[in-house]
């Protein structure tokens, strides 16, 4: 099995989702980005749209309108959004 | 019943009613502290993530951003004061206001004019009573602050910071509010919000070396969109801290009020007993005296 990334998805008021995942897909200001384990450290600005997390436990889809940012280093992904709705 | 006795009974009754109210408020506050603390804890991951990201960008490049630029000769400062909406919380609001006054004095001594932004009904009342001007106020909901309010405040003061001075802009922005230290200690504190000093939440992580991040799009643009978020989260955090501190202060104040009511009731009960005894003694001596007098008349 491929290596996994640890994901923390937080909004201003609370932590929305956290756990291990295979891939995180989010929409940045310059286009969609998919993060897999082993990706180099990145800090990107997110715009409104969907954030998809593919995990072994099932896929998680989060909807955000205002965006935020995503950062990744040493296989830890932190997604920070101002407002977020867990869609699935 | 004697007049004195009636007065004491009245006072006991009134102390008992007050005690019922303060006891109820104490219990309500006690239960709300928990919730307020949970809200602070719930917002912590966000705050630390934002702080970390900002520090990462800041450590990366020599940042020169309008929001971090220090003005040579600051002439105007804004103070945002966080108080409560309701009283009966001991020195909670007055503590914050006192801190703000001390800060304004310091700033005025440095040759700055100070403008105010007020959060909470108590600070507005304080300013209105003294007929002092303030720029804007936010009232209601200080015990359960919403993120929306934090964003409004952030937008307003960032806007003021970005405007030129002649146009009502300011050079520095300070936040004054109570910080929740523990259940028995709440501290009025001052934070300089703008120009930004990026502070790590914990001293240990300040030594941490950040990896070489790839920025998307460019570091400047990332910082552009990060800093407002950072400011919002700082304000939101200040509001949550203030809310938790408010409940803790109220619980403490109401606890001592209940204790004082108990003491009052005890004292007045003793006085009332003494008054009742005195009355009885007097009545007895009156009867004895009366009987004596009648006996002498018969003889």
From TrEMBL, chain A:
Record GO terms (molecular function): proton-transporting ATP synthase activity, rotational mechanism
Keywords, alphabetical: Ion transport, Membrane, Transport
Signal peptide, first to last residue: none
Pfam family, one: ATP-synt_DE_N
Compartments where found: Membrane
InterPro entries: ATP_synth_F1_dsu/esu (IPR001469), ATP_synth_F1_dsu/esu_N (IPR020546), ATPsynth_dsu/esu_N (IPR036771)
Entry annotated with the keyword DNA-binding: no
The ATP synthase F1 complex delta/epsilon subunit N-terminal domain, residue ranges: 7-84
Gene Ontology cellular component annotations, sorted alphabetically: proton-transporting ATP synthase complex
Family to which this protein belongs: Belongs to the ATPase epsilon chain family.
Name of the molecule in the record: Unannotated protein
Lineage: unclassified sequences, metagenomes, ecological metagenomes
From TrEMBL, chain B:
Gene3D superfamilies: 3.40.1380.10, ATP synthase, gamma subunit, helix hairpin domain (1.10.287.80)
GO molecular function: proton-transporting ATP synthase activity, rotational mechanism
Topology term for the membrane: Peripheral membrane protein
GO CC, any one term: proton-transporting ATP synthase complex
Keyword Glycoprotein: no
Subcellular location: Membrane
Main location: membrane
Keywords: ATP synthesis, CF(1), Hydrogen ion transport, Ion transport, Membrane, Transport
Record NCBIfam families: ATPsyn_F1gamma (TIGR01146), PRK05621.1-2 (NF004145)
Family: Belongs to the ATPase gamma chain family.
Protein name: Unannotated protein
Source organism of this protein record: freshwater metagenome
Lineage of source species: unclassified sequences, metagenomes, ecological metagenomes
């Amino acid at each position: 099995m491929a290596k996994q990334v640890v994901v923390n998805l937080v909004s201003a008021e609370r932590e929305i989702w956290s756990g291990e995942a295979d891939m995180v897909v989010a929409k940045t200001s310059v286009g969609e980005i998919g993060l897999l384990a082993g990706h180099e450290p990145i800090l990107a600005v997110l715009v409104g749209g969907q954030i998809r997390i593919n995990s072994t436990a099932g896929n998680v889809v989060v909807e955000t309108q205002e965006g935020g940012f995503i950062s990744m280093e040493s296989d830890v992904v932190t997604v920070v959004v101002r407002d977020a709705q867990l869609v699935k | 019943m004697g007049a004195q006795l009636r007065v004491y009974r009245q006072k006991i009754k009134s102390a008992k009613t007050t005690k019922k109210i303060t006891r109820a408020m104490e219990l309500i506050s006690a239960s709300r502290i928990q919730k307020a603390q949970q809200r602070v804890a719930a917002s912590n991951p966000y705050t630390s993530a934002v702080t970390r990201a900002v520090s990462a960008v800041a450590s990366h490049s020599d940042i020169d951003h309008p929001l971090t630029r220090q003005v040579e000769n600051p002439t105007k400062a804004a103070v945002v004061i966080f108080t409560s909406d309701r009283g009966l919380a001991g020195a909670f609001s007055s503590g914050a206001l006192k801190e703000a006054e001390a800060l304004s004095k310091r700033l005025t001594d440095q040759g700055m004019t100070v403008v105010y932004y007020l959060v909470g009904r108590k600070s507005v009342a304080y300013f209105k009573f003294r007929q002092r001007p303030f720029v804007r106020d936010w009232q209601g909901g200080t015990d359960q602050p919403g993120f929306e309010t934090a964003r409004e405040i952030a937008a307003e003061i960032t806007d003021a910071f970005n405007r030129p001075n002649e146009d009502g802009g300011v050079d520095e922005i300070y936040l004054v509010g109570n910080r929740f230290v523990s259940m028995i200690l709440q501290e009025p504190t001052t934070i300089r919000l703008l120009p930004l000093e990026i502070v790590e939440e914990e001293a240990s992580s300040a030594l941490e070396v950040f990896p070489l991040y790839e920025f998307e799009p460019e570091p400047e643009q990332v910082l552009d969109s990060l800093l407002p978020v950072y400011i919002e989260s700082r304000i939101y955090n200040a509001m949550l801290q203030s809310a938790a501190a408010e409940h803790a202060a109220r619980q403490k104040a109401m606890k001592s009020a209940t204790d004082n009511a108990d003491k009052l009731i005890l004292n007045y009960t003793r006085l009332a007993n003494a008054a009742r005894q005195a009355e009885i003694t007097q009545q007895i001596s009156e009867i004895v005296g009366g009987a004596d007098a009648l006996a002498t008349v018969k003889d």
